[in-house]
Amino acid sequence: MIEHRNTDRTLAELANAAFEAAAEDVIRRARETGTNIVIWRDGAIAHVSPDDFEKRPRKSDQGQESA
Questions:
Q1: pLDDT tens for each residue of 20-35
Q2: DSSP strand E in the chain: where?
Q3: Residues paired with 45 in a beta bridge
Q4: 0.85 surpassed by pTM
């Protein structure tokens, strides 16, 4: 039986959080293995170094910055 948790987060917010976590995992694995990340950019396949991806604050972390 599936247990449903009561949450204020929408399905879209949960999906975005999962995509962000997956992207961070891909970047981490690429750094660990010394490989590029394959993405679709401007209508073509591109091989991008994981170092080209900047660390961005997650939407869930925004608004929690200290002054």
A1: 999 999 999 999 999 9
A2: 37-41, 44-48
A3: 40
A4: no
